[in-house]
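question for whoever is on the cluster today: can someone run the full assembly for these? two chains, 604 residues total. i dont have access anymore since they changed the login thing
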Amino acid sequence: MNASGWGEIVFTIAITVALAIPLGAYMARVWKGESTWLNPALRPVEALLYRSFGVDPQKDQNWLAYAMSMLVFSAASFVVLYLILRFQDLLPLNPQGFKGTTPDLAFNTAISFVTNTNWQSYTPESTLSAFSQMAGLTSHNFLSAAAGIAMAAAVARAFTLNRGEGLGNFWVDLTRISLYILLPLSIVVALFYVAMGEPQTLAANAVAHTVEGGSQTITLYPTASQEAIKQLGTNGGGIFNANSAHPFENPNPWTNLVEIISMNVIGYACVFAFGRVVVARKDAQALVAVMALFILGASAAIYWAETQPAPAMHAVHAATAVNMEGKEVRFGAASTAVWTANTTGASDGGVNAMHDSFMPLGGGVAMFMIQLGEILPGGVGSGLYGMVVMALIAVFVAGLMVGRTPEYLGKKIEAREVKFAMLAVLILPLSILGFAAVAAVLPVALKGLENTGPHGLSEILYAYSSAAGNNGSAFAGLSANTPFWNATLGIAMLLGRFGYVVPVLAMAGSIAAKPKLAPSAGTLPTHGPLFVSLLVGVILIMGGLQFFPGLALGPIVEHFQVLQTVAAQR
Amino acid sequence: MVGRKEPMLDVIYIVLGVAVLGVFAAYAAALRNI
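^ ran it for u. tokens below:
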């Protein structure tokens, strides 16, 4: 650990939050349907899309209609993507002549990209054609991200209504968010990546001739354009198997910084936009403070863990104390730590190092960040509505303690809303722990494990945490491209995405129908240090109580094994 | 062609994915009664 490492961590988090403020102001205008400086160019395209798909942009939907639209859209996306992957050998832009994927892999991958998870059970550069990458995966990087932000916008509108029910129109939100937010940002960032040397080509592989007379096939793709939306949309699915540890995806520290900023900036901006739409900017700032505090804490913990002596290093009396296994020398431990905290807090899942190679506590913190519910700052949109759920639980707990009816942003929070909030929150432990428990005893699942003991359990627990949390990062050490893993991880992704958002939309509908109240002397302020502390406590206790036993059997016991090994070598 | 020999598997996986989403639609409708 050194001062420049700590400075890099603090600077990265601070610049991300700072950039999210103006972006949030812009996003609020898009959510409210107001004019933006892009209107002259994009308004005709928007109108054409509405006409083509028969959408009436003036027609508001109640929460149930909004949820049904989202589910229908997701079902159609799933079927189309499944067919693209299965029949890629019959489709264009397949210079490598890849065959169609297996049915179970198509199932897993289609769900993965529709749910904004982007878990990859396959090696992309030896499995997918350019058409599958572009028309199949990259398009879903936009659409699944836009769907997440749309649902956040719907939740925000619920707090503005006074005995209302219209949460907006899903199809309008999907269109406007894709056109006005994701596309322009992605174009700018993709051009930056091209300038930094990332490939952007439809050409087939390049063949390099080595000095020993052999030849090496180097896979090329339109990498820069996918890399941009991969991080901006908190998708995280790499165009190469090594993800952002691959030099084509992440060639230097500048692209590394921009990728970290990209994966969190829209998540924070959603919260700032929420504050503007609901006219509760201080309350939104409190939510951002909680998110940034967790990211800072997780970055610090991982940085500390990864600069402790690994047993193998200790055994050979190595001079360095940094655990560089699985890390890129061009990024180092500090940058890897802040990336890892951001990618696991944000449900992004893109990696610039291999989490399986981290010290036990470093990997454990990454897993814990996912298990906290992907709200720090979470996936684009999903982070905001997840944090609002936690805020409602926090004011409910506070209300129980002081004996008053809890309120949040002018809305009374009663039993119905808390039931919806708990239905959402409980889906993650149900899915993660339930599937992990089954996989830990089934021989067909254990065949995919490369490690036994606590590390093997960590691999299982991480896989289902990543899937249900819609994160998508892999712990490695698990051969997941089998019918069992593909099917169960696919279902875990569906539960994590739709099992969470359906009750959240119901909660939004319930909140929208309530009268908007002015704050009174008995209202708990939801913007000061007291509320920030309360919210931090609720998030930690919810995560800790649900997942601590699993973590104790995995990374924590492995940490003590490492200490024992190091002590024995002395 | 990998896996193309078993079209029934395609039907099973597509129906499984759409059915799970259908369950969520039914779940949403049921939540109105809470």
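summary bc i know u wont read the tokens: Chain A has a mean pLDDT of 94. Chain A has 18 helices and four strands.
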